Amino acid sequence: MKKIAVALAVASLAATASVALAGPGAATGINGSMHDITSGAAGYTGDSLGRTCVFCHTPHNARTTDSLVPLWNHADSALPVMAPYAWVAPTNASIAIASDPLIGPSRLCMACHDGTTAVDSHGSAAAGDVAGTTPMTSSYTDALGATAKRFITDLTVTHPIGFQYDEAAGVRGTAEIVPSSHGFIKNDISTVSATWDTTLGSGSRATAGESDKKIKDTLYGGFMTCATCHDVHNSVNAKPNAGHSYNYFLYAKEEGSAICLSCHVK
After folding, report:
1. In terms of DSSP bridges, do strands 139-141 and 183-185 run parallel, antiparallel, or are they unpaired?
2. What are residue 214's DSSP bridge partners?
3. Beta carbons of 230 and 249 less than 8 angstroms apart
4. Which residue has the higher pLDDT, 204 or 95?
5. In the chain, what is the greatest distance between 2 CA atoms, to the nearest angstrom?
6. What is the pTM of this model?
7. What is the C-alpha to C-alpha distance for residues 206 and 66, in angstroms, rounded to an integer?
8. 192 pLDDT exceeds 90?
9. Looking at the predicted structure, is the pLDDT value of residue 45 above 70?
């Protein structure tokens, strides 16, 4: 399989367009993170009690009309079923993608990141105590100084999601895909990437270590989703190396392509 860059960078909801997704540090919790929109920044309607979780979740009167089950308190994504990424290598043709590639948490993510649904729309039973009027339409400056948008309208240009990870690993084999029983790469590999040992469990990969968060722990019924790479609650995601300020809610670092190499044997 050709190397595929992770393109589903979770964007800042509260930062201004000039901020390179710096924000509060990784693994510091949801309050004050880039998913805390209580302040009403960027034109969003803030919560009158300054609550953070309420924009997505509620302890009572949650959604019961669909399968959005994590005590969901937000409006549905307005996007229909989207066309998935088209596999590059012919070998991948046998790997099935779900009829809705936004299966599971991915569709919940898109309830803000579709560029259409109001980010600040929330309320009891998601009927809209706060109707919300502001979708995510602005751009930001990424860690490399490039302009990027905070929303996704075309899955054909992002890392594929909505497929069974173990099925893909079976098709490609352990010479190309890391089994889901492995954890994400834990330590800095930017200094060893030039001589990276691809053999699982030995050499530089073993030295880099694996986190307690296993790949299988991030799958939804075995499916790869947005939440397979991204820790939306900013709780156990990887911190960047000193001197770097990005926080993409990733389970492994960008440096040395640790997030990519956690799954891809390259």
Report:
1. unpaired
2. 183
3. yes
4. 95
5. 55
6. 0.85
7. 43
8. no
9. yes
